[in-house]
Amino acid sequence: MEIILKQDIDNLGHKNDIVSVRPGYANNYLIPQGYAILATPSAKKVLAENIKQSAHKEAKLREEASSLAAKLAEVSLSIAAKASENGKIFGSVASAQIAEALEAKGFAIDKKNINVATIKEIGSFEASVKIYKDIKATVKFEVIAAE
């Protein structure tokens, strides 16, 4: 069954994509929740017109996202955490702490868009930040022992 997505859905597609899914998934979840509409011929024509009109905005957003990705690649963060003498952290460093550190540097990134493995020791690490559709940036950060 073909549907048109009304918003980004992880592991399925982005807004205004025409995707094929199983009928039960579309009829019981995506369409009732307002995440998608049925891809009828008239809906496809409306979508094509909307895409044509928004192509300029898309190019501008991509340009801004790539410049933000370049700025994020140059940023290095330092996150303090309580640690034992042998370098193990009490607790862990997650995307929320990275989002707070980025906000302190002037970048408003939602913690949902930051992908990082669970970190339980002191050292240097990298986090992947999803900025826009397929544009991602890598942020380097260092976990240090708090005084």
Number of helix segments? Answer: 3
Query: What's the shape?
Result: elongated
Sheet of most strands: 4 strands, mixed
How many distinct beta strands?
A: 9
| Estimated structural class | alpha+beta
The N- and C-terminal alpha carbons lie at a distance of 58 Å
SSE ordering: EEHEHEEHEEEE
In which range does the helix fraction lie?
A: 25-40%
For the largest beta sheet, what order do the strands appear in spatially? 4-9-8-6
Global mean pLDDT: 92
- What is the alpha-carbon Rg in Å? 20 Å
What portion of residues belong to β-strands? 25-35%
Task: Quickly describe the structure.
The protein is α+β, with helices and mostly antiparallel strands and 147 residues long. It is 37% helix and 33% strand.
Structural description of this entry:
- This protein is an alpha+beta fold.
- It is 37% helix and 33% strand.
- It contains three helices and nine strands; from the N terminus they run E-E-H-E-H-E-E-H-E-E-E-E.
- The protein has helices at residues 23-33, 41-74, 95-104; strands at 2-5, 18-20, 36-38, 76-81, 88-93, 114-115, 119-121, 123-132, 135-145.
- The strands form three sheets. Strands 4-9-8-6 form a four-stranded mixed sheet.
Write out key terms for the chains shown.
alpha+beta, 147 residues, elongated, single chain, 3-stranded antiparallel beta sheet
Write the layout of secondary structure elements.
Blueprint: E1 2-5, E2 18-20, H1 23-33, E3 36-38, H2 41-74, E4 76-81, E5 88-93, H3 95-104, E6 114-115, E7 119-121, E8 123-132, E9 135-145
Parallel strand pairs: 4-9
Antiparallel strand pairs: 1-2, 1-3, 5-7, 6-8, 8-9
